[in-house]
């Protein structure tokens, strides 16, 4: 029986896979739920092993059918067309991102969707202008050789991305992979499937050849994510997510000795010296601790402040944090949205309880805001500041991934460098100081992939991005992405 129009309007949207140029459904689906009020956003298809296999085969076939032979200029044109396609549906992308994450509209506009577009444009321009290495070699017998390096596509790239910056992180990998002449099978997080599905529509509408971009939805362990990493025809896996998941994927791909690029978790530090521009440092730490409700891998959950300004800094950060407005995305006053889900909120709240057990002083927050309306069904928590914990406390060593930071005093430069580095993670750090030499000196000694001085979260997409220790393997960004997504062949020629 046909659905009545009213029923059709009420039916939840179904987000499907995009395989070999067609949108396809699966028998099994799961619910995509709003973290703002717990309502259903969409039903999402769950890819089984057969669907993943179909996607990988389609990608391999498209690769052989000619995508690998396209010229860099042709691929740059495709990437710009995709960027134009996102731009043309900008508001739909914003709405999709907001529905899945509950983040403020302004953030989705200025950060998530804007960066999605920028990722395609940046790698289009990079591939158009990319060069390669060249060396002259002279051997003792008087012969002369030249060496030049050819970049060739790897083949089929498996892309697995997280929920915290859905479109931004998904396109951060899709764009360079396609730019280098690879085909892709990409899986967004099960928590945030909407913007990736819209992206598939854009790919379809711009006429990208079938099989070049394939989208599969589903969960990770023993599901779509694992099926993708286990697939023998995948040439490389690029993954952003938790360090523990990275470790699992590494074991899975070990037998096939697949290339991997991992952008993983962090327990990032901010260091505020007494000579810092005080107001700029307070503002900077509010941003670095609470942007996206603390759900950015680069957020600082450990703040070290030089003792002479410690009390004043804690008071100022408390006052500024209490000005944050936690609320729904469409309220223009909102500066902080909910966590991604009730499940993640349970994890963050367990750390709120643990901090008290470990002896923290709760400077502000520490609980769940009460709204008295539908938002009470959402996944909100209060922005939270602690002091008084030892460096060994679990709340100071483990990634929480919520709007929370611990502030500790320090006395000397050497001491704080040691404490910042005394971490299993090594993703990012920010230093606040007005002494130029000190900034450079400290940055050099910090064991992370990224250091900001008097800044945070500023990203030039040409620069290397990635982490040390548990925070990742490899670097992406600029030519580092081009290197990862290609097989380099050195050609050595005797010329004399
Ligand atoms: P997650 O590891 O739980 O999931 C990430 C993705 O991996 C999802 O798509 C999930 O379905 C998939 N997955 C899970 N288990 C899998 C398995 N066994 N095999 C294959 N795929 C699997 O991470 P999350 O909770 O979505 O994201 C938050 C984490 O991501 C935090 O730790 C954060 O620090 C990290 N992160 C890092 C960066 C970075 O650039 N370094 C950026 C953003 C987020």
Automatic annotation (TrEMBL):
<dbReference type="Pfam" id="PF00171">
    <property type="entry name" value="Aldedh"/>
</dbReference>
<keyword id="KW-0560">Oxidoreductase</keyword>
<dbReference type="GO" id="GO:0047102">
    <property type="term" value="F:aminomuconate-semialdehyde dehydrogenase activity"/>
</dbReference>
<dbReference type="InterPro" id="IPR017628">
    <property type="entry name" value="OHmuconic_semiald_DH"/>
</dbReference>
<dbReference type="InterPro" id="IPR016160">
    <property type="entry name" value="Ald_DH_CS_CYS"/>
</dbReference>
<dbReference type="InterPro" id="IPR016163">
    <property type="entry name" value="Ald_DH_C"/>
</dbReference>
<dbReference type="InterPro" id="IPR015590">
    <property type="entry name" value="Aldehyde_DH_dom"/>
</dbReference>
<protein>
    <submittedName>
        <fullName>2-aminomuconic 6-semialdehyde dehydrogenase</fullName>
        <ecNumber>1.2.1.32</ecNumber>
    </submittedName>
</protein>
<dbReference type="InterPro" id="IPR016161">
    <property type="entry name" value="Ald_DH/histidinol_DH"/>
</dbReference>
<feature type="active site">
    <location>
        <position position="263"/>
    </location>
</feature>
<keyword id="KW-0520">NAD</keyword>
<dbReference type="InterPro" id="IPR029510">
    <property type="entry name" value="Ald_DH_CS_GLU"/>
</dbReference>
<comment type="similarity">
    <text>Belongs to the aldehyde dehydrogenase family.</text>
</comment>
<feature type="domain" description="Aldehyde dehydrogenase">
    <location>
        <begin position="25"/>
        <end position="491"/>
    </location>
</feature>
<dbReference type="InterPro" id="IPR016162">
    <property type="entry name" value="Ald_DH_N"/>
</dbReference>
């Amino acid at each position: 029986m046909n659905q009545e129009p009213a029923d059709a309007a009420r039916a939840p949207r179904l987000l499907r896979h995009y395989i070999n140029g067609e949108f396809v459904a699966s028998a099994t689906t799961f619910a995509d739920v709003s973290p703002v009020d717990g309502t259903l956003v969409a039903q999402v298809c769950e890819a089984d092993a057969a669907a993943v296999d179909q996607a990988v085969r389609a990608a391999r076939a498209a690769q052989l059918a000619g995508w690998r032979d396209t010229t860099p200029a042709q691929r740059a044109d495709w990437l710009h067309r995709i960027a134009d396609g996102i731009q043309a549906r900008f508001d739909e992308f914003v709405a999709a991102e907001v529905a899945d994450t509950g983040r403020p509209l302004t953030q989705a506009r200025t950060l998530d969707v804007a960066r999605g577009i920028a990722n395609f444009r940046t790698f289009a321009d990079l591939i158009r202008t990319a060069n390669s290495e060249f060396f002259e070699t002279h051997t003792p017998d008087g012969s002369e050789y030249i060496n030049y390096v050819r970049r060739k596509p790897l083949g089929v790239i498996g892309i697995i991305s997280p929920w915290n910056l859905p479109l931004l992180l998904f396109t951060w990998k899709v764009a360079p992979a396609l730019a280098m002449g690879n085909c892709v099978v990409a899986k967004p997080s099960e928590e945030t499937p909407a913007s990736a599905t819209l992206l598939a529509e854009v790919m379809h509408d711009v006429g990208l050849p079938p099989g070049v971009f394939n989208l599969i939805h589903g969960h990770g362990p023993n599901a779509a994510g694992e099926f993708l990493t286990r697939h023998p025809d995948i040439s490389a896996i690029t993954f952003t997510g938790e360090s523990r998941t990275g470790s699992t994927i590494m074991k899975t791909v070990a037998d096939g000795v697949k290339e991997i690029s991992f952008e993983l978790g962090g327990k990032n530090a901010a260091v505020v010296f007494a000579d810092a521009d005080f107001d700029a440092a307070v503002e900077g730490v509010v941003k670095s601790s609470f942007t996206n409700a603390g759900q950015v891998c680069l957020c600082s959950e450990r703040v070290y402040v030089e003792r002479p300004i410690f009390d004043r800094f804690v008071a100022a950060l408390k006052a500024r944090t209490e000005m944050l407005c936690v609320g729904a995305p469409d309220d223009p006053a909102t500066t902080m949205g909910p966590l991604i889900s009730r499940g993640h909120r349970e994890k963050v709240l367990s750390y709120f309880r643990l901090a008290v057990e470990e002896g923290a002083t709760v400077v502000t927050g520490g609980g769940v805001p009460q709204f008295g309306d539908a938002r009470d069904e959402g996944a909100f928590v209060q922005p939270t500041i602690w002091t008084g914990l030892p460096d060994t406390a679990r709340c100071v060593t483990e990634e929480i991934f919520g709007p929370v930071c611990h502030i500790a005093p320090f006395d000397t430069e050497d001491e704080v460098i040691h404490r910042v580095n005394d971490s299993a993670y090594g993703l990012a750090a920010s230093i606040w100081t007005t002494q130029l030499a000190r900034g450079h000196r400290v940055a050099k000694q910090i064991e992370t992939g990224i250091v900001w001085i008097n800044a945070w979260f500023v990203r030039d997409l040409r620069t290397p991005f990635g982490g040390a220790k548990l925070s990742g393997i490899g670097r992406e960004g600029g030519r580092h992405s081009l290197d990862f997504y290609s097989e380099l062949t050195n050609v050595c020629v005797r010329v004399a």
